[in-house]
Specification:
2 copies of one chain form a homodimer. In chain A, 44% of the residues lie in helices and 16% in strands. The first copy, chain A, is α/β, with parallel strands linked by helices and 340 residues long. Chains A and B meet through α8 and α9 of A and α8 and α9 of B.
Chain lengths: 340, 340
Amino acid sequence: MSLAKIAVDISSGDHGASVTLPAAIKFAQNTPQVELVLVGDESIISPAIPEKLKNKIKVLHAPETVLMDDPPVIALRAKKRSSMRLAVDLVRSKEADICVSAGNTGALMAMSHTRLRTIKGIDRPAIMGSFPVSKGKEICLLDLGANVTASSENLFQFAILAHGLQANQLNPKPRIALLNVGHEDIKGTAVVKETAEKLHACDALNFIGYIEGNELFSDKADIVVCDGFVGNIMLKSCEGIVKTLYEKMLTGLKNRLIFSLTFKNILKKLMKDTFQDYSTDHRNGAIFVGLNGLVLKSHGNASENSFLKALELGLTVIKDFDCQKYESLVAKITSSEVCL
Amino acid sequence: MSLAKIAVDISSGDHGASVTLPAAIKFAQNTPQVELVLVGDESIISPAIPEKLKNKIKVLHAPETVLMDDPPVIALRAKKRSSMRLAVDLVRSKEADICVSAGNTGALMAMSHTRLRTIKGIDRPAIMGSFPVSKGKEICLLDLGANVTASSENLFQFAILAHGLQANQLNPKPRIALLNVGHEDIKGTAVVKETAEKLHACDALNFIGYIEGNELFSDKADIVVCDGFVGNIMLKSCEGIVKTLYEKMLTGLKNRLIFSLTFKNILKKLMKDTFQDYSTDHRNGAIFVGLNGLVLKSHGNASENSFLKALELGLTVIKDFDCQKYESLVAKITSSEVCL
């Protein structure tokens, strides 16, 4: 494959360069066929780059930083030389295939939306993430928080966007489900019911109907669509309970008189194997979909290892993604008579 | 305390009398100061009651059963002699302090709403459940599915209803939070923001602001308010992921060569201790609040043990609940100038 170019927003996030910079350098060290542009304070970044990586790591100086509590409007209007803005602009100018940032979600979405604009036929971008389900598979969820309300047309478009990213030779028609409080036709809000009608009428999409919260992790669908309010709360609640259970087990383990170190290690390994798939340290990154270019959002408080996972995900997304093919697919479905 | 009277809907639920009847009999056997009215098919129920329990178990014959897929309107109009309807009517006529049913939620809510009516000042009933948080405490969540949409006035009233049930001498002003996608004032839907304003303005309630999904399990609030669409999906997603994690650990355990039975048992005990608080087998039951009487909804597919937990919860709720005090508190807050 050709060289993948990733723009990395170094200054943003809870920990800024102290986390993102070593992660980016490690990523460049371990990954062939990749070129990074690190965007941030040059005086911090440049001295940290090892001599032998200078051919694959470029630096773009950005004197400003979008803070985690900057309102989107401030980030947009007052921080035109921020690392976030300049990193997104590299995607806009096609100098990068994707931008990876741990910056504040609202500002990053506003910046991406304003600078990249939505694909023709798409009214609103969405945030898409994934969760492991049984048998090593993953389920894609969107929207995870870009739109606290969404019309049925928005939700329908989110389904198209996810289909475009997920459909491939192995799975040409990924199963699309709509998150709801029951399976029956009478269940749900007016918007959800309208969306179901639109999806049912669209032959290009494989709509399998409603899915309930407890079915999300059992490989019933490949893509699940909801508005950003529900999606965000659902995702964070799950993260919260996973963390709580993990800590509870650790405490329980400490409070038990188990003298065998071997057994303790077996148990810790078992816990790690079970929980790590759901931990943000092991998997990190949500994709902004619907824009003329790719942006990947890392958790704001990502550790070095976690930010590395986001960079790895970014590379995978680029590989799977063909922008032109994607746009023409979206155009085909949104303009299709079948769907309207 | 005086005798607690519980009406049990025997025929409803995925498993009907095969589960509810033995659970109810066991409950009567183990619980002093309780009187049950078992509502359902007399020819099944009566022969099953042991002679020595006949003084504390009455039977009310109901020739009809509301099925799990009966639409609420069918249940209401065509099944006036159903076990569900007659059990709710025992609460209406004050012959029972609470009705416990594993029947279909929509039908049970429609029946309860129609037969019991809302408390003066309350426009809509809600479903309230609880979840364990750290330090052995619980968090109350509502609405869990009675209202797929809710106005700010509805959400505000839900807060009052939960406050009325939760406030006690030990905790006279329980912490009330509003479920949202962030903490900042700009976050959330218009309805959520309006509700926050109403709650802030109400001195009688201890409103602590917004809470995010990942904070639900960390003892930051005593009561969390949301609409029934979000609440239902959040609750079921958490149940889904807990089940998935538990099964993953069990499989991991089976696939490991651990020869010591002692270790296996220690581990199983540890897993049980960790997960059982969140399992529907260990805790079961959501309360319909806002009505002139108490109704408790058990999981439809509850096992015998799980239905027993619902009956136990029902008894606790009766003990903690003073209907008149509750109604006057609701009246006081809803009519208070401070809140309007």
